[in-house]
Amino acid sequence: MTTTPIISRTQRELRGQLAEWRGSGDRIAFVPTMGALHEGHLSLVRLARKKAERVIVSIFVNPTQFAPGEDLEAYPRTEAADSEKLAAEGVDLIYIPLPNSMYNAHHATAIKVGGVATGLETDHRPTFFDGVALVVTKLFNRVQPDVAIFGEKDYQQLATIRRLVEDLDMPIHIIGAPIARDEYGLALSSRNQYFNAQSLAKARQLNTIMFDCAESMERGANVDRAAEDAAQALLDAGFSGVDYVQVRSKNSLTVLEGGVLNKPARLLIAAHCDGVRLIDNCAVNVKK
Amino acid sequence: MTTTPIISRTQRELRGQLAEWRGSGDRIAFVPTMGALHEGHLSLVRLARKKAERVIVSIFVNPTQFAPGEDLEAYPRTEAADSEKLAAEGVDLIYIPLPNSMYNAHHATAIKVGGVATGLETDHRPTFFDGVALVVTKLFNRVQPDVAIFGEKDYQQLATIRRLVEDLDMPIHIIGAPIARDEYGLALSSRNQYFNAQSLAKARQLNTIMFDCAESMERGANVDRAAEDAAQALLDAGFSGVDYVQVRSKNSLTVLEGGVLNKPARLLIAAHCDGVRLIDNCAVNVKK
Fold it and tell me: Active-site residue B41, yes or no?
């Protein structure tokens, strides 16, 4: 089903194409990305294909979600390869906004989501979700999709975007897509390409430790103890630091009291492996 | 041209009607209000009529833009009279969202506009524009107008909304409408109905003092001195307090250096008259 996607770099081009499709009654599914596309992204695109007549993928490495010292400059940019992959998936339009078209010198508006965006990632990347909320709002207003797809890999981000969309009454249906993993269970990430073979082997232990931890919580282990054990297991496996191992309520990401879980929850982990920060998460399927 | 406007109280009703009009290719002009409608509002509605096939007016007394101690409870609610006035203007739809549909218990998203929203009103009502930016964004996302009309009476608010819309890439054209005044030049305001005859006579001096001040600036007076003189004139006229008399750049509301103006500017005033806070503003037409 390879087609040649339209590549739009300006809002004018984008708007023209959108008007044509809307005029034909086509629904639009949108997958915002920062490029460096892998199978995880492509699984989102395939889901998007099922949801609407037209699929738009944006590629924009958003500076406002990187903190000073993070890998904004080093973040992989692979536009030609990305475009080929998207063509092979039958994407209709790739929107690659010109960097200086996104934030002009007079820009003065900030969006802050509380609740679900509190703690976890925010404890370690304090302005991350502010940057995500702003760029997602801008892209949504430019693309005006009916449906937008986000991966569960960034679970707190997905919850934050759901909150944002509901709170601001954006007429967009947000769909979460399951985490794509390699054959060893490592969650796919553009940052995995920073690893050599040895580091990759180490990184692949993260998911094993996480699923073990979730299973022990499902079997009735004390959640604080189980989380501590998982964090220790990560350090024992050679991870240089653990930002968090936390279990939260499934949808609102409420902090849960310690003890034994009595309702479905989500286990979320962030840890450092040879200079790369990895995040992962999984369901904890406790029966109500 | 009296028609019977549709009154929508739920998003479902609103969305259904919007879809029908959009399907017919009708453009939509939107005038958000807090009700208590006067000729000032109706002048916005008449401008809206010229801009689009369909005119929607919302009535919602937005709690998030009132601070504790302000007149949220006392703010006049006159829905029946408002509806009659809007019917006489040929408004197509009046959107009166149910109060509890606007902010639910899980609401966690805030919007903050800097720049133009800094100082002036914000010095005296620190969360006012946060409340305005949030409710306007929500109403825009619900109504999805092509055009929205705001009065220049709330000049800093108009500038803030222009900034918000540009920064978030909302596909909406914002139009400012001139200030409607009574025969004595008093800017029309829903809060004017708080005045008795004596207070009204006092309030009517505000615009005279303001226009005199602008004229002296146009003739080359030192702006700081002219502003001080105007503030003193207000106190001499019986105003109980002056929040600000300030000249700012016309569009970006930049604070101007003292001295003599050398480009078009805006003079903005807020002052207290017998328990009512009045604001007003006017152009200062200095030739470049």
Answer: yes
